[in-house]
Amino acid sequence: MPPATDQLRAYVEYLRDMGVYDIYRQGEPLAPEAYAALLAEFAPAPATAPTAKLPASAIEPSPGIRPAQGAAAVRRPEPTAPAHSSTSFSSKISTPAMLKLSAAPEAFPPPKPSFLEVPIPKPKSFDELMPLPQDRIAPADRPAALQAIRNLIGDCTRCPLAYAGRRNIVFGDGDPSARLMFVGEGPGADEDTSGIPFVGKAGQLLNNMIAAMGLQREQVYIANIVKCRPPANRTPEPVEANTCSPFLLEQIDVIRPEVIVALGGTAATYLLGVKQSLASLRGTWHSCRGAKVCVTYHPAYLLRDPTQKGEAWKDLQRVMAELGLKAPSKS
Ligand code: URA
Fold first, then answer.
1. Alpha helices (H) in 109-226, listed in sequence order
2. Is the entire prediction scored with pTM above 0.85?
3. Which domain covers residue 281, as residue numbers?
C-alpha cells in the first residue's frame, strides 16, 4: 500500500477507535433538507447523460419531437457563454454539467463547504499547557517518577502513530537528574528498532556534539516530541505532537533540567508554542518549564549540510557558558 494510503487508513482507524464516525461535522447536525440539498449538489450525473463523444443528433431533439418535461435543463447555452466553454466541445452538445461550467466558470471547482474545514490546532507552549509545579521531585525519586510516566503511556494508542507501523515506544534516555536535556523531533528507524532515542546516524553526531561539550551521553537526558516513529520519517502531525508531548512535559517536570536544547524546528515549535523560522529562534534564550531553551539545528540537518556545524557549535558554546562547562582539551 502506498504510504499516503497507509497514513489515511491509520487516521481513519484512529478516529474510529476514538468513536468519531462523522469527521467533517462541526456544530449542529445538518437538517434533513440541508443533507438533501448537499446530496443533490454532489449527485453524479444520470447514467443517460449525453457525453461529448455522442453525435449531436443523438441528443438534440429533432424538430418533430416535443421536449419532455424539464427539458429546459438541457437547453444549449446562450451565445453569450464564455468562449472557452464552446471551443473544444461541439456547440450542439450541452449536458447539465457543461451548462453549469459555461454559466458560471468562476464557480468551478465549487467552493469547499465550510463544514469540511477541520481546524488545525495552533501549538501551545509547554508553559501554556499547565502551570509549573512548585515542588520538585527529589533526585532519588526521579527514576521511579519517570517509570510511572512510562507506565502511564503503556502500549499507547492515543494517536495515529500507534497504527502507522511503530515497533517500539521511544520514551527517553539518560540521567533522570540531568542539568542538560536535548529534545528532538521523533524516532527514526534505528530508534524505533532499539527503543532508544538518537542511536542512528543523527544520534552519532549528537553523541559527538555532547562529547565536544565535555559531557558524556549518560550525563544528559535525551527525548523527542513524539515517542513513536512517524512513517517514512515525516514530520509529526499536530494531532500527534499535541497528543504525545504532554508526556514529555511530565518528563521535563520530573528532571527539571537547567537548559534544554531544542534540536530543530519541530522541537522548538512544540516546546515554545511558536511557528517561526529556526534562524529567528536561534541566538537568544527562550524559556520552558523553568529551563532556559537554546534552539539549534537538528543533527540530521547538519548531516545534510555540514557547513552549518560551526553555527550549531556557537549555540552549544552558549549552553556550555550557561552551565559552566569547558570543552575537553585536545590531546
Ligand atoms: N531524530 C530525532 O529527532 N530523534 C531521534 O530520536 C532520532 C532521530
1. 126-129, 142-153, 189-194, 201-212
2. no
3. 126-323
Flag whether 207 is in a domain: yes
Query: Cα torsion for 34, 37, 38, 42, to the nearest 10°?
Result: 180
In this predicted structure, what is the pLDDT of residue 123? 80
Q: What is the tally of structural domains in the chain?
A: 2
Give 32's contacts (C-beta < 8 A, 6+ positions apart): none
Distances (CA, A) of 264 to 185, 275, 281, 282, 296: 7, 12, 10, 10, 6
**Amino acid letter, 191:** E
Cell triple for 208: 559527538
Ligand 1, from 192, 201, 224, 296: best to mutate by most atoms within 8 Å of Cβ? Answer: 224
Q: How far is CA 34 from the centre of its chain?
A: 32
Q: Is the residue at 223 inside a domain? A: yes
Residues with a CB atom less than 6 Å from ligand 1: 184-188, 191, 197-198, 200, 202-203, 224, 300
Residue 244: exposed, middle, or buried by beta-carbon count in 10 A (0-12, 13-18, 19+)? buried
Strands 259-263 and 180-184: parallel
Asked whether 200 and 189 are in contact (CB, 8 A), the reply is yes
The cell numbers describing 302, all together, are 547538519
Average pLDDT over the chain reads: 80
